[in-house]
Amino acid sequence: MACSSLRLSFKLNLSSFLANKHKSSVNKTCFIHSNVLKTDYRKIIDPKYNKGTAFTHKERQILNIIGLYPSCQRTEEEQLYAVYTNFKAKKTSIDRYIYLRSLRARQERLYYRFVIERIEDVMPIVYTPTVGTVCQQFSQLYYTSMGLYVSKYDKGYMTHVLNNWPEVDIRAVCVTDGERILGLGDLGANGMGISVGKLDLYTALGKIPPQYLLPVVLDVGTNNQQLLCDPMYIGVREERCRGQEYDDLVHEFVESVVKTFGVQTLIHFEDFATPNAFRFIKKYKNDYCCINDDIQGTASCGLGGFLAVEHITRKPLNEHIIMFVGAGSAALGIGKLLVKELISRKMNVEDAVRNVYFIDVDGIITKSRQKFVIPDLKQFAKDMPPEKSLEKLVDTLKPSILVGATGQGGIFTENIIRSMAKNHKHPAILACSNPTHKAECTAEQAYNFTEGRALFASGSPFPPVVVGGKRITPTQANNAFAFPGVALGTLCTKPHTITDDVFLVTAHAIAEYAREFQPNDNVLYPPVKEAANVAFRVGVAVAKHVIQSGAATIYPIPKDIVKHIKDYQYFTDVGTALPSVWPYPEMTRFPMPKTNE
Ligand SMILES: O=C([O-])CC(=O)C(=O)O
Ligand SMILES: [Mg+2]
Questions:
Q1: In this structure, what is the dihedral angle of CA atoms 482, 472, 426, 518, given to the nearest 10 degrees?
Q2: Known catalytic residue: 566?
Q3: What's the 243 CA to ligand 2 centre distance in angstroms?
């Protein structure tokens, strides 16, 4: 009934508007109207402002777009319902990804509202694991740029290239050179998918307005032979440039970002190969506002999980035996932050590293190693005979926390997991590698081989597992709990640099949230549906820390930091957002057609 009367009034409005329009006898006015129609339509199709069928009749009148949309007028909730129905109807994850990208290209706010409201369904699509497959197929799926491609051939002109991006006010740049995309290796320029995915979470979780964000691929070639031979490959079809030439390109890029968008622009390095990742963050972190998510974001997420283990097992962290399998950016990042945490508890370095072991492809890292690709690894080297077998090492060293960051799916075997279960009531197993098939073990294996006692978390999501009649929902150990909040806290306070302390603060905020949210559960992280609240908690903690440490450059310093952050955040309610951001005041100069409203 309500629906039909609504339809009737819409009909009346429409016909009276049309009648008025036809009555107009001044040709000049008609001429202006038709011109306006054309210009307005171009404005309307800007995805930032487009409301699609949610434009009200009145808005359609003002904007001269009557007839350009079907006559139904949907509420945003109805639009979301339509989007969800379409999303669910897609048969594959890739199809869902493509559908969502096309939605974003049409109606940005609706897209973000959908992602925010359906984060559990959507995060596995726009982020790991689907984004991994997307990157592998990116050249085939390519239909529009999505971000900025800066190539080695832009050397000397990078500022110009950055200036070509249509938005002027850029506050964060996520850049990858595509050499280590998730655990999938070198995907060259196809890595754009990862920069886009990370920044999508800036908005979906950190609620950072998307117009401030710029995804970038720094295309320096690829050593992926398959891509080099692929006629559809979108990137520079050459071997990667290395050495000084490569470093100079990265340096020009960093400098150009600052020159183009300002010194407080957050530069987020993502999925660079490990030695480069460490080299660049060391080189730039004291002079630029930058983070390496794979090292620092993962570190705070990992340490957050360790703090949860400490809480659940009621055993101090330094008494745990911690074994990192994999010695790349993720593992070493967590190890280093762990040491920082223990030092902050008045422990010396020797005591802090005593129970921390690293294992790489050549076995346990011992003092007899001649060469450390990453010098920071040396502090964890042990005075013991070399050993390659992971099973033997787990048997003899009896780790209570086992962290996998190897990119080698399945290397936590049944024997390894059972051995941990034998020695500990709640063995902690973090299978951090992404995407899903690269996880060191599955949730099912971790829970089944420990009678459900494991404190398990993984980088990519796993479905719930039933063990002994009990349903256990695994949590995700993913830097998505860290970087959106770090970015939020940083962008709201504008420090010139981001210190390591920020990541300690982040780890504690994540652990604190998990404790508060599930005080009685043996889980390491909050559920994904809480990820936006975690980002907010982290954002507030980081902002407070930046202000207290005197590094904030916003003046006056806000008294109410929570309000300050909330004011900054993006809101997706199109109905209320439109008037305040509507950028074309000149349109109000044209008289509004009379209606019966
Ligand atoms: O993107 C993710 O899911 C986590 C991450 O940074 C990586 O695996 O490189
Ligand atoms: Mg990464």
A1: 50
A2: no
A3: 23
For atom 8 of ligand 1, the residue with the nearest CA is: 182
- Give dist(CA 208, CA 200) in Å, integer: 9
* Distance from Cα 201 to the centre of ligand 2, integer Å: 13
Which numbered atom of ligand 1 lies nearest the CA of 433? 8
- Cβ atoms of residues 335 and 358 within 8 Å: yes
Domains and CATH numbers, the chain: 41-74 (no CATH), 131-288 (3.40.50.10380), 296-477 (3.40.50.720)
Beta-carbon contacts of residue 59 (< 8 Å; ≥ 6 apart): 51, 578
What is the average pLDDT across 240-254?
Answer: 98
Q: What is the pLDDT of residues 419-472, one digit of tens each?
A: 999 999 999 999 999 999 999 999 999 999 999 999 999 999 999 999 999 999
154 CB within 6 A, ligand 1: no
The model's confidence at residue 193, banded by pLDDT at 50, 70 and 90, is very high
Q: Which helix (H) or strand (E) holds 455?
A: strand 455-458
Q: Which atom of ligand 1 is the closest one to the Cα of 197? A: 1
Burial code of 389-410, b = ≥16 C-beta within 10 A, e = fewer? ebeebbeebebbbbbbbbbbbe
**Active site includes 198?**
yes
Q: Which ligand 1 atom lies nearest to the CA of residue 434? A: 8
Tokens, residue 273: 């190969």
> Residue 548 carries which side chain, given as an amino acid letter?
Q
pTM: 0.89
Closest by CA to 525, choosing from 538, 511, 537, 535, is 511
Nearest CA-CA partner of 138 in 179, 174, 110, 97: 97
CB atoms within 10 A of CB 557: 13
Q: Cα of 128 to ligand 1 centre, how many Å?
A: 7
Given the residues 97, 112, 127, 570, the one annotated as active site: 127
Radius of gyration of the chain (CA): 26
